[in-house]
Amino acid sequence: xxxxxxxxxxxxxxxxxxxxxxxxxxxxxxxxxxxxxxxxxxxxxxxxxxxxxxxxxxxxxxxxxxxxxxxxxxxxxxxxxxxxxxxxxxxxxxxxxxxxxxxxxxxxxxxxxxxxxxxxxxxxxxxxxxxxxxxxxx
Length: 138
Description:
Order of helices and strands: EHEEEEEEEE
Shape: globular
Structural class: mainly beta
Number of strands: 9
Radius of gyration: 15 Å
CATH architecture: Sandwich
Low-confidence stretches: none
Helix content: under 10%
CATH topology: Immunoglobulin-like
Strand order of the largest sheet: 5-4-8-9
């Protein structure tokens, strides 16, 4: 990230869908390792490189958070050991670099507590600034 600190980009969530318990069961995750029952939330986002040095996709989407109707916030799922698969939401190529003017449409998976609903997608802006927020419709 240090090499691209002067680069600029935009993040635009375009679609949010909540998955099912069946998606969780088929995901390949060890459900016993999770803190309680969870369901996936799939967030499709358009990332656009505006200026500066080329940037990896992984440097552009790391500040996204899903906020639930219970005011819980969760970052994107990161699988360290093994892998997880989701219907119609392929894992993004986080190493792919975008140059000025290029865009990428990615899907990112978040896990929320079963029974809660995704209320908004937020882009955190550090400790002292309020996050940008896109309300989830439906």
